[in-house]
Design goal:
By secondary structure, the chain is of the alpha/beta class. It has two domains: about 35-165, Alpha-Beta Horseshoe (Leucine-rich repeat, LRR (right-handed beta-alpha superhelix)), CATH 3.80.10; about 165-234, Alpha-Beta Horseshoe (Leucine-rich repeat, LRR (right-handed beta-alpha superhelix)), CATH 3.80.10.10. The protein is about 10% helix and about 25% strand. It has helices spanning about 1-20, 135-145, and strands spanning about 40-45, 50, 60, 70, 80-85, 90, 105-110, 115, 130, 155-160, 160-165, 170, 175-180, 185-190, 195, 210, 220, 230-234. The strands form five sheets. The protein has a five-stranded mixed β-sheet with strand order 1-2-4-6-8. It has a four-stranded mixed β-sheet with strand order 7-9-10-11, with helices on one face. The chain has a four-stranded mixed β-sheet with strand order 12-13-15-17, with no helix packed on it. The chain is elongated. Residues about 20-35 have low confidence and may be disordered.
């Protein structure tokens, strides 16, 4: 009788084991001090960083796999002092970091081929820019949208094979279109320029002397308007 009861017990254990339901432990989630789940700081949609949840954030690491920093993604993040851009990024769109007044330095990956106009507008503290590619690659990037350089306060960009120096005068298609250094006391417009564009040196109050190359045939309206210190034009 005892043997029979033991056999029945073993059969019951086996049956329970066969019908057991597997239980999977839940995945870990980040929990904040308030007990709530922590949402990612950077909003990403289809590989594009489109926004920042926390405008008071001081540092951001954009997730790996992001290929583009979208239009105005970090607009108004005034406290943002540092940002890590992953190697996967190839494009930085218009106004991406507009108004990030505390941003002092940025490292741009070698794969970036396009930087939109005003991407770093009003980043007053941005004086250090590094690029992972060569000077020639950087020239190709800035060549797509030279106005990017108007709004970067760094006078140079450190590249993998040397340093690119920002010119004092922005030239496009033989036209001197803008002075990139409003504090310049003297300027020599590059040879090859045939026209000084409208308002090219507008508001350069410290400009005392300017050398214009022989090839210039046209000076646009208000080219030197507001140059209150200008005493010599050759």
């Amino acid at each position: 009788m005892k043997i029979r009861r033991l056999c029945i017990a073993l059969l019951l254990v086996a049956a329970v084991a066969d019908n057991a339901i597997a239980v999977t432990a839940p995945k870990a989630v980040n929990i904040g001090s308030d007990g709530e789940r922590q949402k990612p700081v950077v909003l990403v949609e289809d590989g594009v960083a489109v926004g920042c949840r926390d405008k008071s954030v001081t540092s951001v690491e954009i997730p790996a796999g992001v290929t583009k920093i979208g239009n105005g993604a970090f607009y108004g993040c005034k406290a943002l002092a540092s940002v890590v851009i992953p190697e996967s990024v190839t494009e930085i769109d218009w106004y991406a970091f507009y108004g990030c007044k505390a941003l002092a330095s940025v490292v741009i990956p070698a794969g970036v081929t396009e930087i939109g106009e005003s991407a770093f507008l009003e980043c007053w503290a941005l004086t250090s820019v590094e690029f992972g590619g060569t000077v020639a690659q950087w020239e190709a990037v800035k060549g797509k949208d030279n106005l990017f350089n108007v709004y970067v306060h760094a006078t140079s960009v450190k590249c993998a094979d040397g340093v690119w120096q920002k010119p004092v005068v922005l030239v496009e298609g033989g036209v001197a279109v803008k002075c990139l250094d409003k504090s310049a006391a003297s300027v020599e417009i590059p040879a090859g320029v045939t026209k000084i564009g409208n308002g090219a040196f507008y508001g350069c109050k410290a400009l005392a002397s300017v050398v214009i190359p022989a090839g210039v045939t046209e000076i646009g309206e208000n080219a030197f308007d507001g140059c209150t210190s200008l005493a010599s034009v050759v």
